[in-house]
Amino acid sequence: MKSLRVSGAVAAAWLSIAVAVAASAAAGSSYPIALTRGSRLLVQAHVNGHPVEALLDSAAEMTFVDPQFAKALKLSAGDSVTAQGSGRSAFDAGLIKGVELEVFGVNMKNQTVAVADLADVGTRLLGRRLDVILGREIFDAARLEIDIDGQRVTVVPRNGHPPGRRLGLTTERGVETVPVTLEHAGTVRAAFDLGNGSEVLVGSRLAERLHLLTDGRTVSTRRGGGLGGETERQTFVLRSLVIAGRRFEDVPAAIDAQPSATDLNIGISLLRHFLITTDFAAHAVWLEPRAGAAPD
Description:
Layout: E1 5-7, E2 14-15, E3 30-32, E4 34-35, E5 41-47, E6 50-56, E7 64-65, H1 67-72, E8 80-84, E9 90-103, E10 106-115, H2 119-126, E11 132-134, H3 137-141, E12 144-147, E13 152-155, E14 165-168, E15 170-172, E16 175-182, E17 186-192, E18 200-203, H4 204-210, E19 220-224, E20 231-243, E21 246-256, E22 264-266, H5 268-271, E23 274-279, E24 284-289, E25 294-295
Parallel strand pairs: 6-11, 7-10, 17-22, 18-21
Antiparallel strand pairs: 1-2, 1-8, 3-13, 4-5, 5-6, 5-9, 7-11, 8-9, 9-10, 12-13, 12-23, 14-24, 15-16, 16-17, 16-20, 18-22, 19-20, 20-21, 21-25, 23-24
């Protein structure tokens, strides 16, 4: 799921919400993650002390809670804003301040979360109810070693030296991006999106600039999208994509037509080939390739 950007109005300037975090966790503690259909990551979390299964989304600018869950916790939304997810339409969300989030043993007090209807996205992505989408707060709060196929997350010391190649993060409208090499285009910034359980997403402006839909490759359509509703996307194949020195060929991709889309968006389909260490506060991720992807 691409960034859940929050704005005062659909066409207004994007609102970036700073995260003030008080984190306390025992380094080396490991926690299970569930890998669901469509390669979505589910984790055990707490909201104001109440346990909940949450969808982990590194490209969500903040945490979202479903209205029914918020009501059960007696959380009342304040300011109303318009949000934009990866679905076809913007949607309304209410902000709740002073919320306590806990996941992977990391306690984050005084957070601001958004209330939005998650029923549709839960049904389409998980086939069941979804109460919480856990956003980037945890990635800001702690250094995490993420083993997708091993279904484990480990909180690691920030003074250590993670395995793999270090990629510097650049923030674009509240979303962290990493450098990748796309076909003949050279270096392109790609959203680091653990909430994206489908194909690589290509921003429509980049696709037009590189003639990706008009250079003779086969183009079809499929349904997709996250918050904001289902949408139809043009799909095709990227001939090559290099991430952290590893080359992937014949990579399934789809057009992201949102005006706010990053040039690229890489998710679980490619990131599962790496042992991942994230440290948003240090503006870096480390990717240690696993077997199965040929070196560049």
